[in-house]
Give the backbone structure.
Amino acid sequence: MPPTLTRNIRQGLASLGLATLLTGCQGMPLTHLMPGHEDPLDSAPPIERGLDAEGLSTLLVAELSGQRGDYRRATQGYMAMAERYQVAELAERATLAARFSNDPLLLEEAVEQWHLLSPMAEAPLRLLAGLALQRGDWVGALEKRLLLVEQGAHGELTLFMELALDAGVPPLPLRERLSEHLSRPGASDHPHHHDAMLAMAILEAATGQSHLAQTRLDDLARDHSELPALWMTRARLALDDGNTSQARDAARRGLEVSPDDPRFLLLLAQTELQLGNVAAAEAHTDTLLDEHEGNQELRTSLAALFLEDGHFEAARRLLLPLVSSDQPPPTAYYLLGAIAEQEGEVDNALLYYRQVATGGDFIRARLRAARMLIEDDRLLDARAFLRIERLRHEDHFNELVMLEVELLDEAGMTGEADALLDRELARTPNDEQLLYLRAMRAWSEGDIEAMERDLTRIIERNPDNATALNALGYTLADLNIEGRLEEARELIERAHEIEPGSGAIMDSLGWVYFRLGDPERALPWLERAYAAMPDQEIAAHLAEVLWTLERHDDARSLVEEALQRFDEHPVIDELLERIPELRP
């Protein structure tokens, strides 16, 4: 691209502020200033370099849209101009606007364009890797990280693999892809090659290749013994293998290499606990707390570590100073309740659970307290407790009602659960959360008429409730109710207008188009849905559409991936019963 074009575009962007001021003169009568003859530029050749009128207008609209909060329109304007002028800076600006649009697919489209226009830039690759993680595409995220590595950047592969395994991601596909990367020419020359080697050792250990993993770590120890990550990996792998003494030795070596790294002190405390050396573990935790004085989160995390191994007194000693402070963290009360519960002190535990303030542990504490009472054959007390909590915490009223419904269902008291829900809805007949819950319960019981009645009431009161619109539309489409598919399409399209970035709604759109006999139109929506929200049900829909379009190999590959990816896949199983040829 000629440098003058880039310069002209940048000057055009700078002039947008002036153009904005000029728009304030729209109301002034200017016709008397215009010449009476024809525009002499009518026959001028089109502008081929720099900003023409259309380009400046599009950029101006994009800029003003962003200032008004219409980030979707702003993004689309910048993307159009980035495509037209092939300017990476405009794609970067589109990405910035898209991050505020609440549309992950639009954001990904903008970042993809930025990466295409600036393939060596690090920022778009890191964003693409993060977006892939958000939708659960770990292999796709790894691909982007490996591209970073191949460009000479640090891919942080060891941390990535640890997160993947913690999330329950199947390690074999990651191992195979990383193996390809390590076998390419020049891979060992990368300044962070050791990071890839450590990541590979983690994957080898996770896939039963412990001997290969240990050999790889031994090789790294000879040349990179100064790396804290090496000893962290050795300690964690040893812990996973049940070699607690070996894990402790690795943690000690890591602390020697990196004395200021608190993770090694935490590992030492963990290994000492597993070896039964509670006093030694407390010594390490005391050191940690001295180095991070006043860190309440650290203290509660350490208490949870002692609690997990059944050392209740040590955990209690860590927690009691917190609950006597001016601002006790809710987690401290929750953990003290868990200690009292495990020691059989039900009423004492109940007192602690009730003191957990609103926040992340609030509902969890009430759920645990109610279950504890039920397990103690005190169902009436559990229900009375939840009723009182609803009165005490009106902001959580619906959540506590739904919690009680869940517990009654677990106890086999479905009738009581239905009665509770009906009673609360009689009191607040237009409560959308409770209506939706009752609708979904009716659906699970096969009472589609009752489900539709409650969803319709929600939609009548709130036409912008995308969840209710989508639920009703999808149900009509999935049941393939004769004469109602167009109605289903309208409901789902309305839901999509309200929440364009929802993977669930995109799946519904694709499925209703398929039911209407248009698999070609259905396919891109289902592909976008699966990219945004990998789910076994969406995978089944997409596979069936691919099969209908005679893309049999693609359909079988998707089914095979889904069977490996999801522990439970009832919709895939049902699909294979209907179309056994899909079985890989």
Notes: DSSP finds 33 helices and no strands in the chain.
